[in-house]
């Protein structure tokens, strides 16, 4: 991260606003989960979900929540199985 002398280290970086164009069910599920995580988001009628990523952590959480909604269930099951196999083999 680059800092300029005129910008104090404590000043927050501007939020990145992302439009997420998902189907209606996924939009609702993502919206609810992001609300649970206290990530600012807004959804208008027939509009994409708009999400504000204010920190790198929030961006990672947004990515994770969206991925769980759009990834095929078979891929999610395979990923969980790989995680369990790694845990068992340690």
Write the layout of secondary structure elements.
Layout: E1 16-20, H1 24-36, E2 41-42, E3 49-53, H2 56-70, H3 73-89
For this entry, give a set of tags.
alpha+beta, disordered N terminus, 90 residues
Task: Please characterize this protein's 3D structure.
The chain has helices spanning 24-36, 56-70, 73-89; strands spanning 16-20, 41-42, 49-53. The protein is α+β, with helices and mostly antiparallel strands. A three-stranded antiparallel beta sheet has the order 1-3-2, with helices on one face. A hairpin with a 6-residue loop joins strand 2 (41-42) and strand 3 (49-53). The longest helix is centred in the C-terminal third of the chain and has 17 residues, at 73-89.
What structural category do the secondary elements indicate?
alpha+beta
Tell me the span between the first and last alpha carbons.
36 Å
Multimeric state: single chain
Largest sheet: 3 strands, antiparallel
Shape: globular
Q: How many separate domains?
A: 1
Stretches with pLDDT under 50, minimum 5 residues: 1-11
The tally of strands reads 3
| Beta-strand proportion | 5-15%
Average pLDDT, all residues: 83
Summarize the structure.
This protein has helices at 24-36, 56-70, 73-89, and strands at residues 16-20, 41-42, 49-53. With 90 residues, the chain is an alpha+beta fold.
